[in-house]
Amino acid sequence: MFKITAKASVSAGIILHNLIDPTKNALLTRLMRRVHFTAAELPRPLAPSALHDRYENGVITVAGVHPNVGLEQEQEQTARVRLQRGFKLHRLSEGPDTMVSLTQAEAVRYYRQMKAIRQIEAAANRLYKERMVRGFCHLYTGQEACAVGMRAVMRPEDSIISAYRVHGWAYLMGLSAQGVLAELTGRRSGCSCGKGGSMHMYAPNFYGGNGIVGAQVSLGAGVALASKYRQNGGVCLALYGDGAANQGQVFESFNMAALWQLPIVFVCENNNYGMGTSAERAACNTRYYTRGDVLPGIWVDGMDVLAVRSATEYAIEFAQNRGPLLLELCTYRYGGHSLSDPGTSYRSREEVKEVRRKSDAINRFRELCLDYGLQSQEQLEEIDAEVQTEVQNAVKVARSDEELAPQYLWADVYAQNIEPRLRSVYGYDLMHARSKPT
Amino acid sequence: MLRSRLTQAACAAQRAFSTSPRVLAKQMTVRDALNSALDDELARDDRVFLLGEEVAQYDGAYKISRGLWKKYGDKRIIDTPITEMGFAGIAVGAAMAGLRPVCEFMTFNFSMQAIDHVINSAAKTFYMSAGAVNVPIVFRGPNGAASGVAAQHSQCFAAWYAHCPGLKVVSPYDSEDARGLLKSAIRDPDPVVVLENELMYGVAFPVDDKVADKDFLVPIGKAKIMKPGKDITIVAHSKAVETSLLAAAELAKKGIDAEVINLRSIRPLDVATIFASVRKTHHLITVENGWPQHGVGAEICARIMEDQTFFELDAPIWRCCGVDVPMPYAKSLEINALPQVKDVTEAAIKIVGNKVGKAAATAGK
């Protein structure tokens, strides 16, 4: 049942047939050793997908994503990859493709994006330890494949809203590493001028960044309603964790999205812990992809960027044409809930180590790229270095830039202010302003 | 009906003091004012839509949206399940994405289920995003005590919402207010809470022709002097304006000329109008149906205290508020729980006679 096939790109003329022979392929033998499938997880027959050809024709250009490096498109080669773990389906007779294509350009992009998120979070961690980041700081480390896989197939008309673990998403939606890190240090070049902080970052088609657990799900349903209302073909991805999955308004949103056939994909990033409470201790049903009642759902290996991409592509197409559905991305956060949580009282260090060792999304993807010959070790190291430089430069600004001038404290309370004066600590002496030119 | 007789009397009281020439004006109920305001704005801007419980096929729990579903259809007039937190969130999300939702709460009592979205999602997003994402939404519905519906359904939220920067809060009294303020609220780029009053929906008020105009707007943040006077200022909003006008008529019989200010907006609060009035009358009472502590009247007192206008006062300011208890069910208890005309009249007489502080001090001993 389990095999890897490969297909040579005509333009590249590179033959990868040797991958089919397990005796010649280290990856395959490793995978066969590593992966133990239960019946429910067995790869499913390929689902017909109208969108599939888009991969075969070359690179998908995604607005707002950082430029790819060092690849000539004419020389591009495409690998055909069978996902290591299949999908579990709820109220669906067929699911996303388990056999997916991966071009060199895509490989570079996903690898680069995942590395960039990890580096940004590492930088955030350092800045926090230096006490330059105030308040809450929730890191996405470990979950990179979720955001990168989803972002890979978002179209310009699609939007996304998430909760408080959003540094990576802010970056993927077009904000710079500097915009993110300078926001964490509260500087004026931060993406919200230092007025939002870790949880409140916004970009076109990215509606935050929300500090109220679960609130983003109904807001996301509203964004989807706006897309449907405008008939712009957009789908909204509304992300929430296994903790938020128990909030009442999440179920309220499922209900209305189903009633009104909103173009929304509810994405539960199940990292196994809502703060320090494990999924089993918080939910009577931890199969989150089944919790939409009549809504279809798909369980996805959230540590596999290609699985997330395949599922999201399927889900976006499904949401647009057939209505809302749920994705559960099974993932893991390496750090605590936030940086003030060492994350060791409710789980063991061994557990974290084990996930890092066996399932780390970046390591898995790196190996895949190498094994398929999509990137060389040197090329990947070059990307690493480039990302490191980008983040280092961002950190410099995040450290050195200034905070907003005091008069911007009272900027942006209203889009159209009609108070003659806002109140200061005492007295009504503040003229309302805008921190960015309108 | 007691209330319609009262309101007629209040209108008559207002007219009796009016200096403008009496024209036989046409009548419009507050319900029709709100309905026509929605109709106008739905027609004017296709981003505007109405959602809430029973707003479409049922024609509105209080018939404010009567006929709109038939006219605008399922896309623009959306019946929601009974799920305030969810649909308020959906409305805010749609506003963040550029639509102009009007989110009806069947009554504002139920907005407490959704208050997180009103405050955290709607009011704060513009600030948190440094001006990148505005939330042009209207939350509207009946607010305050209705009649015989007891504690959980009889509460004023003016102070709650007016407390929060990022929100604008209006509270219409009559048909002109209701129509003009709702239209302004819908056109406003910020979140606006429109606190209506169920008891006023069926009341007809005389309105000028200009009120029926498609572009008639009442500016948010401006109060209206309902009746000018020189002896004492009475500041009120919503149904308490009616109480205040009736009290002013009673006071006139006793030779006290009261000025009645209809706040119209709770946030921003038009303190300029209040200050100017106090500089003229040197006496002030506030009237509201909400609770006293940290209420609208309390805020007005604080504003006066913080201003030179304080020195214009010849007597302490006094508040007439809803009694500091949950609303009882029984009729006589309910009446006693809300400021009545005689309460306002008595308070005004004591203030003008500069006896209020003394009376209270004596009572405390």
Automatic annotation (TrEMBL), chain A:
Keywords assigned: Oxidoreductase, Pyruvate, Thiamine pyrophosphate, Transit peptide
UniProt GO BP: pyruvate decarboxylation to acetyl-CoA
Residue runs in coiled coils: none
Reactions catalysed: N(6)-[(R)-lipoyl]-L-lysyl-[protein] + pyruvate + H(+) = N(6)-[(R)-S(8)-acetyldihydrolipoyl]-L-lysyl-[protein] + CO2
Enzyme class: oxidoreductase
Entry keyword Cell membrane: no
Alphabetized GO MF terms: pyruvate dehydrogenase (acetyl-transferring) activity
InterPro entries assigned to the protein according to its UniProt record, in alphabetical order: DH_E1, PDH_E1_Alpha_Subunit, Pyrv_DH_E1_asu_subgrp-y, THDP-binding
A Pfam family: E1_dh
Tree of life domain: Eukaryota
Domain (Dehydrogenase E1 component): residue spans on this chain: 112-406
EC number(s) on file: 1.2.4.1
CDD domains found in the cross-reference section: TPP_E1_PDC_ADC_BCADC
Cofactor(s) the protein needs: thiamine diphosphate
Functional description taken from the UniProt entry: The pyruvate dehydrogenase complex catalyzes the overall conversion of pyruvate to acetyl-CoA and CO(2).
PANTHER family: PYRUVATE DEHYDROGENASE E1 COMPONENT SUBUNIT ALPHA, PYRUVATE DEHYDROGENASE E1 COMPONENT, ALPHA SUBUNIT BACTERIAL AND ORGANELLAR
Protein name as it appears in the record: Pyruvate dehydrogenase E1 component subunit alpha
Lineage: Eukaryota, Metazoa, Ecdysozoa, Arthropoda, Hexapoda
From TrEMBL, chain B:
Recorded GO MF terms: metal ion binding; pyruvate dehydrogenase (acetyl-transferring) activity
Primary role: The pyruvate dehydrogenase complex catalyzes the overall conversion of pyruvate to acetyl-CoA and CO2.
Lineage of producing organism: Eukaryota, Metazoa, Ecdysozoa, Arthropoda, Hexapoda
Chief location bin: mitochondrion
Any one GO biological process: pyruvate decarboxylation to acetyl-CoA
Organism in which the protein naturally occurs: Drosophila lebanonensis (Fruit fly)
Compartmental location: Mitochondrion
Name of this protein: Pyruvate dehydrogenase E1 component subunit beta
Cofactor(s) needed: thiamine diphosphate
Primary gene name: LOC115620524
